[in-house]
Design goal:
CATH topology: Alpha/beta knot
Radius of gyration: 18 Å
Order of helices and strands: EHEEEEEHEH
Distance between the termini: 50 Å
Strand order of the largest sheet: 3-2-1-6-4-7-5
Largest sheet: 7 strands, parallel
Number of domains: 1
Length: 166
């Protein structure tokens, strides 16, 4: 799979969510992770990031949107449950992207939305946990861009059909 991606959140406040996002980003081979205006408590991720992802994955902490500097050619994609947003299953992921999720109790700021080239929603009845949303986006990106492989028609656990006596 070519290209790269990063994932982050604006105004994240819970260390368990940030730790889970970092661990999942590391597992999905993200190029970087980031926070914008994170609450100081969110940085206490010792217990939730059991893979010590910060030792293996660059994590950028920007105090404001103005401080955010994405790589040249990187497309910012907002993840937000909004009726006008494109549903994730129909979204064509940019080759080089940074995905931005809103805070646990709130939405992406208007300023953040204006910076996004796309707004994408996970088609659920209501918002899911921030770390779950991040995992769904990373999984969808991986599958839609051709990794990690083609799905098998049958399960390796299936037993072959037994011949019948006639």
């Amino acid at each position: 799979m070519r290209g790269y991606f990063g994932i982050g959140s604006e105004r994240i406040s819970k260390p368990m969510n940030l730790g889970a996002v970092l661990r999942t980003a590391h597992a999905f081979n993200a190029s970087f992770a980031f926070t914008i205006a994170a609450h100081h408590n969110a940085r206490k991720i010792n217990l939730s990031d059991t893979a010590n992802s910060v030792a293996h994955l660059p994590v950028y902490e920007w105090a404001t949107l103005d401080e955010m500097h994405l790589p040249k050619g990187c497309v910012l994609v907002g993840i937000e449950l909004d009726e006008k947003a494109v549903a994730l299953p129909g979204f064509r992921h940019p080759l080089n992207a940074a995905y931005l999720l809103g805070p646990e109790k709130g939405d992406l700021s208007l300023e953040a939305r204006k910076l996004c080239s796309h707004i994408v929603k996970i088609p659920t009845r209501f918002c899911v946990n921030l770390s779950i949303a991040a995992a769904l986006v990373m999984y969808d990106r991986t599958i839609s861009l051709g990794g990690p492989g083609v799905r098998s028609v049958s399960s390796a656990l299936q037993t072959p059909a037994q011949p019948t006596d006639q």
